[in-house]
Amino acid sequence: MEVIIKIAKHGWSMRHQFIKYFIVGISGFVLNFCLLIFAKEVLEISAVVATAIIGVLLMGFNFLLNKYWSFREKSIPHKQIIRYLILNGANYIFSVTTMYAFHDRLGYDYRLVNVGTVMVMVTWNFLLFKYWVYKIECKNPITECQINVKI
Question: Tens of pLDDT along 53-86?
């Protein structure tokens, strides 16, 4: 029971940070969705190609807002950039592959595929951003590293 209480307290302590992450995610999603519709309907670009191009364009937007606003991480270690690129690369491959499989091959509406893909990725991204991408490295492995999140 003590472990459950500890987990609940830890989850509750991250609520403001999660809300900021969620706001960044929603704004990125709206931008992604609008650009996808514009590229597909107005520019007549295939949904797979549009997804690929938009994914690259939005990487910087999401990285900077999450780094400096959601997670308040001011340092610029190369590890963060590499980890971010690895995570975003995995998300990128997942998005493009999903669009190809469900829209091009199975005929689902590209807008529904986009929404579903984003919903799936959100489930793993917050925790990976918090505990892996923007992880603060402890200089002294003997003492426990504390992460101070300002709200």
Answer: 998 889 888 888 888 888 777 776 788 889 989 9
Best CA proximity match to 21, nearest among 117, 138, 115, 133:
133
Domain edges within the chain: 2-133
Alpha-helix runs per DSSP H in the chain: 2-13, 15-37, 47-65, 78-99, 110-128
Tokens representing 117? 């893909």
- Residue among 109, 115, 139, 140 at smallest CA distance from 41: 109
pLDDT tens for each residue of 84-110: 899 989 999 999 999 999 999 999 999
Q: Under a CB-based contact definition with an 8 Å cutoff, are residues 133 and 84 in contact?
A: yes
C-beta separation of 80 from 73 below 8 A = yes
